[in-house]
Design brief:
This protein has about 150 residues and is mainly alpha-helical. It is about 85% helix and about 0% strand. The chain has one domain. The chain is rod-shaped and about 105 Å long.
Length: about 150
């Protein structure tokens, strides 16, 4: 109805036609912003997914390294036992602390840190999956705009 009234009034923009034009511009800008928000949300989801995959791959590598360290520790311990058995003077090994003790502590702490990071990444991924990204981002922007108004 507003468009019909403004067209009947002629080519001169009056107050009502000016308001109608501004409403049209605002609607167009709102649509553009909505599209941009959806694109940003999609890129954000993709990046979270990529980071999650990278964290999982890193955790798998760390687990593999830990297993190899454990195997090496076992081999070292067996070697120490063999050396002690073959020692003709029956002297204890000269290594004051088994080599594996320090490495095991480091490997265990590394695995715990990686598992903790995996949990954090999974939680972030779940949050992103649960929320409709465009609606969520629109709400956040509206909150930010409201908080900036004097």
């Amino acid at each position: 109805q507003v468009a019909v009234v403004t067209n009947q009034m002629g080519n001169q923009p009056t107050g009502l036609s000016q308001v109608s034009l501004e409403i049209g511009r605002l609607a167009s800008k709102t649509f553009e912003l909505g599209t941009q928000m959806e694109q940003i949300g999609s890129r954000f989801k993709l990046r979270v997914h990529e980071l999650s995959e990278a964290a999982r791959a890193g955790a798998n590598v760390a687990r593999s390294v830990t297993i190899k360290i454990d195997r090496a520790e076992m081999a070292l311990l067996e070697l120490e036992e063999l050396i002690a058995e073959k020692d003709f003077h029956a002297l204890p090994p000269t290594i004051p602390e088994p080599l594996g003790v320090r490495k095991r502590v480091t490997a265990d702490s590394l695995v715990k840190e990686i598992e903790h990071a995996e949990v954090g990444v999974s939680e972030l991924e779940d949050i992103v999956k649960q929320q409709d990204s465009s609606q969520y981002l629109i709400q956040k922007i509206q909150q930010a705009l409201k908080s900036k108004k004097p």
